[in-house]
Amino acid sequence: MQIERDVMEYDVVIVGAGPAGLSAACRLKQRAAEVGKEISVCLVEKGSEIGAHILSGAVFEPRALTELFPDWKDKGAPLNVPVVGDDVYFFLSESSAFKMPNLFVPATMHNEGNYIVSLGNLCRWLGQQAEALGVEIYPGFAAQEVLIDDQNIVRGIQVGDMGISHDGTPREGDFTPGMELRAKYTLFAEGCRGHLGKRLIDRYNLAAEADPQHYAIGLKEIWTIDPAKHRPGLVVHGAGWPLDNANPGGSFLYHFENNQVLVGLIVDLSYSNPHLSPFDEFQRFKHHPVIKQYLEGGTRVSYGARAICKGGFNSLPKMIFPGGALIGCDLGTMNFAKIKGSHTAMKSGMIAAEAAAEALFAGSEGGTALEAFPTKFKESWLWQELYESRNFGVWLHKFGAIIGGGINYIEQNWFNGKAPWTVHDLKPDHLTLKKASEAPKIAYPKPDGKLSFDKLSSVFISSTNHAEDQPVHLKLTDPSIPIAKNLPLYDEPAQRYCPAGVYEVVGEGADKRFQINAQNCVHCKTCDIKDPAQNITWVAPEGSGGPNYANM
Amino acid sequence: MKALVSVKRAVDYNVRIQVKPDGSGVVTEGVKHSMNPFDEIAMEEAVRLREKGKLTEIVAITVGGAKNEETLRSALAFGADRAIHIKEEGEIQPLTAAKALAAAFKKEGAQLFICGKQAIDDDANQTGQMVASLLDLPQATFASKVEVDGNKAVVTREVDAGLETLEVDLPAVITADLRLNEPRYLKLPDIMKAKKKPIDVQGFSALGVTPGAGLKTTKTSAPPKRSKGVVVKTVDELVAALKGKGLI
Questions:
Q1: Are A142 and A159 in contact (CB under 8 A)?
Q2: A440 partner at 20 to 30 Å CA-CA among A38, A49, A157, A529?
């Protein structure tokens, strides 16, 4: 079917209103104003508003923000809670923990000068700054396709069609074709495992010289707690229980403003036990005395989950292709040793913006590779920072939290990150699962409804919604694999790794079938990453669909 | 014929409402807001009436702070020809808002005032009625079908007993119920154009409205939690259980 599409042309189109995309947008406009020229910038965001799909811890390092808006304080940026202390625990069991003496805390885990923030609200604020600078921002519109011409050059994106029924046919009277947004340069800032970024990495073979990307899933809740227990600015990080060396990860609890704490568990998607359920690990984690002491008597306000890229330096793909670039977590700029990616995402966006602005000022008609982006990237503190942390994740994978963490301590505190060796982790996360029959089953305790909850009541408070009657946005390349292969081999791990109850195996015996409850999806992308057969492809649903996170 | 369509910015219907711990209201900061869904239906109806040639101009109007501009932008993207922002920060009482809307209606010399039957934030269901009373106009509330014919409108209303059909003389006030229509998707090109349309900003004073403070909110609380259900096996058990609770 030939569809007539409206077309708009811009100098730069940006996909995704996260810290990377918004910083790039602001920087482009700032550079244009500095030299007295015009750069038209359009930003699309699949969430129903800016911040609706943003989820992060978050302890925020303001370095990049200060470069972008030196007067961010006067402009009212929502950085209200300076970190006042770092507690690092090693959880030995469900009831005991060892508090690490400050002396042994790796330098990258010190948070003096940082702030506890809601990254969603910081993005909302960045969105206001961007609009004030003249950026056109369109939330509720998902970039669905990359426009690539016959010269293999990226020329922009196509926004998703609206009003398509679940069987793929246009709904009478409702069908609204997505617009083509053409650009001289297109910056992809979709966050970890962006569905277009994934295709671009593949098409332009961008990861040819990089280690495989590594991922984790972060689950987070916001709690309102007893004011007597609230210590604004206190940062608590943990490793160990309920996870272990074969299934590693870490935890956090941040004392935020308004008597709220932000609690979360990050589970490496390199975990090997297919019976593991990140969601249930998180729920039981909250019963640990160190965490329970704060949450008990409190109220859970919100829940959400998101995958992150943590391969860092060694896994960085090539960042440019003709007509555009990947930035932020779409590229994989998180600093895992600091467990922070917002400032690095912002910086990558700013550098890409400077490269694009330079090209446009030089009269470029677009379509070229922004070679200045990787060059400037290498000259920046971002490259330095990622380089110094390059071994952290690998040591943890190889030796676990104690020994791996110890080596990292030596690298960070004795060598200042400049140790003369680099270690690699070459096994992709979807290949790490053991057979279900060879891995111990895990008996998770029933949620008590006070500290721990079931999946559905959790998804409910993520305010997730998708318009009814639309195609399932989680595509199976081979629909037989879940039941024919994944079920016997791994007891279909999608049932457990999905933090929103999207995947279910229903029926008995020969009637067993794989059910996809796509309307529950919180857009975390874990299925796209962890499916052992790489059979699930996440694509953007109709714009505005997904969670509606507040203050996340 | 000109219609004035009132649109209100409300906490989005997908958001789970949370009461502030001190009971002074509900949490609205950092929470997604959008156009009250019943007002979207009102907007859609106006656009359809214009498409049928019954209306020549649609003016969207809202009462509230600076952030309400985005709601007017949505209305413009829907197809409003122009927009009026009665810009006042802080709490605005329902009667004050109705007075401002009524004054604007008069000033515009419009024939139809259309709004949602209620806003999903405090479900008060009174703006349309108050505007009609203030202007001494006929009102047709809870509309599920609207036909405009010359100087009259034939409106089908959803009432408890079924449907009621009224004929009202214009000018009149119509409030939209859920089944009146299904609003269209906003198109990106229309949203782009809407960004550039001017908005007429006015204040209470220009409309001769003095803000009142007739209502005072004493406390906001969450509804009581539903207790867990009990599964009964037989009708007898059900009857016994209901009797036990004194319900039959």
A1: yes
A2: A529
- Domain encompassing residue A41: 7-69+120-210+317-388
pLDDT digits (tens, 9 = 90+) for B195-206: 989 899 999 999
pLDDT tens digits, one per residue of A97-116:
999 887 777 788 888 899 99
Query: Does residue A310 fall inside a structural domain?
Result: no
A391 touches chain B (CB under 8 A): no
CA distance B191 to chain A (A): 8
Burial annotation B144-153 (CB, 10 A radius, 16+ → b, else e): bbbebeeeeb
Tens digit of each residue's pLDDT (9 = 90 or more) over A357-380: 999 999 999 999 999 999 999 999
Helix ranges (H only) for A59-173 are 63-68, 119-132
In a domain, A138, yes or no: yes
Q: Which residues pair with B154 in a beta bridge?
A: B147, B167
A vs B: CB pairs below 8 A: 58
Provide the residue range defining the domain that includes B26.
2-244
Report the CATH number that the domain containing residue B160 is assigned in CATH.
3.40.50.620
- Say which of B16, B34, B187 has its CB closest to residue A460: B16
The answer to whether the pTM exceeds 0.90 is: yes
Asked if residue A178 is part of any domain, the answer here is: yes
Nearest residue, CB atoms, A174 vs list B16, B185, B186: B185
Residue A52 counted as domain residue: yes
Whether residue B138 has a cis bond before it, omega within 30° of 0? no
Q: How many CB atoms lie within 10 A of CB A480?
A: 10
**What is the count of structural domains for chain B?**
1
Q: A223 vs chain B: nearest CA distance in angstroms?
A: 12
- Residues in B touching A51 (Cβ below 8 Å): 30
Counting the structural domains of chain A, the total is: 1
**In contact, A319 and A24? CB cutoff 8 Å:** no
Cβ-based contacts of A140 with chain B (< 8 Å):
186
Residue A337 phi/psi, 5-degree rounding, is -65, -30
Q: Give the DSSP letter of residue A103.
A: G
φ, ψ (nearest 5 deg) of residue B181: -170, 175
By CA distance, what is B14's nearest residue in A? A463
What is the CATH classification number for the domain harbouring A172?
3.50.50.60
